[in-house]
């Protein structure tokens, strides 16, 4: 892996068409039973190889064994009834039918450790694994048991910490927690959100990351972003808190967004995963565009602490668009790396 500017994707990659319907977010599986499990692991191997061939430095599973970045983890927990559905407002943006927390939540066994062991055996490069963050988990459920967002978040933080420790034991180098809810619920963020996230990372020796973005390029998200004005300054709420936290890496959206790049200064001293690839567009960035996005951040983060990345996951894109975007990301990082050396 390159010593500086090692490229990484944030989370998901498109799934092969034989596994689920392509270019559709959270589409159902086309296989079931043992065939589904075999197909998921085959897709994970393909995702790792496509990253390696594209020049990505930190390899992830591409979320190939997950239908949804939050609920696939929750499906493996006790205390959540997927047959009892309620309609809730997701991140104050859109309504969705979600499962119900009907009892005490718990985790009987690891959800992703075996998948992580499989990925670890396939590469000697650093590997990164994404988990949903506590606040984003509670925002994807109807709670009929705890009836307290904070209490449920702390319960999930404890469960996530158990899972994260097993992922670390499986050889994961970076554990990333996805918290798009940090861009919406600012009072909760300050009262207990960052503290719950730190509880999820407690005792880990591997690196920890939090990913905060403006979401996939779906209609509800693009409509919300259209209301945010000429500058998106939501990160001003979370960055100072995270700069003081025990979290090692902060992942943020940048390219083709209206986030003022100078907000990165609020993270001074932390490692930064900077989104230099727009996942809401099929347009393939040029390496020069990627390098320019990264270069603009250098006054606010040392190059040794900068990881070029995508803005968010790429699950809704075609495999070929995602592949070309990864190649552009790695090539742009190489351009800037050569310039700095």
- Would you identify the CATH architecture of the domain at 33-66 and 113-129 and 168-340? Alpha-Beta Barrel
Q: Tell the overall outline.
A: globular
SSE class: alpha/beta
Helix content: 25-40%
Our Rg estimate from Cα atoms comes to 19 Å
**Strand element count:** 10
On the 0-100 scale, what is the average pLDDT? 96
The biggest sheet, with number of strands, parallel, antiparallel or mixed sense and barrel status, is: 7 strands, parallel
Q: CATH first level of the domain at 33-66 and 113-129 and 168-340: which class?
A: Alpha Beta
Q: End-to-end distance, in Å?
A: 16 Å
Give the strand line-up of the largest sheet.
1-4-6-7-8-9-10
Question: Mind explaining what this structure looks like?
Answer:
Its EC number is 2.1.1.13. Keywords: Metal-binding, Methyltransferase, Transferase, Zinc. This is Methionine synthase. It is a single chain. The protein is of the alpha/beta class. It has a domain of 224 residues: TIM Barrel (Alpha-Beta Barrel), CATH 3.20.20.210. 37% of the residues lie in helices and 19% in strands. The protein has ten helices and ten strands. The strands form two sheets. A seven-stranded parallel sheet has the order 1-4-6-7-8-9-10. The two termini are 16 Å apart. The relative contact order is 0.15. The model has no long low-confidence stretch (mean pLDDT 96).
């Amino acid at each position: 892996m390159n010593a500086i500017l090692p490229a990484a994707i944030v989370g998901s990659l498109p799934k092969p068409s034989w596994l689920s319907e392509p270019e559709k977010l959270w589409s159902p599986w086309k296989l079931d039973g043992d065939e589904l499990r075999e197909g998921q692991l085959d897709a994970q191997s393909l995702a790792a190889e496509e990253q390696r061939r594209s020049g990505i430095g930190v390899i992830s599973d591409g979320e190939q064994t997950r239908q949804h970045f939050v609920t696939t983890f929750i499906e493996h927990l006790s205390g959540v009834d997927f047959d009892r559905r309620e309609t809730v407002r997701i991140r104050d943006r859109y309504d969705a039918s979600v499962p119900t927390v009907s009892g005490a939540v718990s985790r009987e066994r690891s959800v992703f450790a075996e998948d992580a062991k499989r990925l670890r055996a396939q590469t000697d490069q650093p590997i990164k694994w994404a988990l949903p963050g506590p606040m984003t988990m509670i925002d994807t459920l109807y709670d009929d048991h705890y009836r307290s967002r904070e209490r449920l978040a702390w319960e999930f933080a404890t469960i996530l910490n158990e899972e994260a420790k097993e992922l670390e034991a499986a050889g994961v180098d970076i554990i990333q927690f996805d918290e798009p809810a940090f861009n919406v619920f600012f009072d909760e963020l300050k009262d207990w959100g960052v503290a719950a996230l730190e509880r999820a990372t407690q005792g880990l020796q591997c690196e920890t990351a939090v990913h905060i973005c403006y979401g996939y390029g779906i209609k509800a998200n693009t409509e919300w972003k259209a209301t945010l004005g000429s500058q998106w300054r939501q990160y001003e709420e979370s960055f100072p808190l995270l700069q003081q936290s025990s979290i090692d890496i902060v992942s943020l959206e940048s390219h083709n967004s209206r986030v003022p790049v100078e907000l990165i200064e609020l993270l001074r001293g932390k490692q930064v995963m900077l989104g230099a690839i727009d996942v809401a567009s099929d347009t393939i960035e040029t390496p020069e565009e990627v390098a320019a996005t990264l270069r603009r951040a250098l006054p606010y983060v040392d190059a040794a602490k900068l990881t070029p990345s995508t803005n968010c996951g790429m699950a809704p894109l075609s495999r070929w668009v995602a592949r070309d975007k990864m190649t552009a990301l790695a090539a742009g990082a190489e351009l800037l790396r050569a310039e700095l050396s």
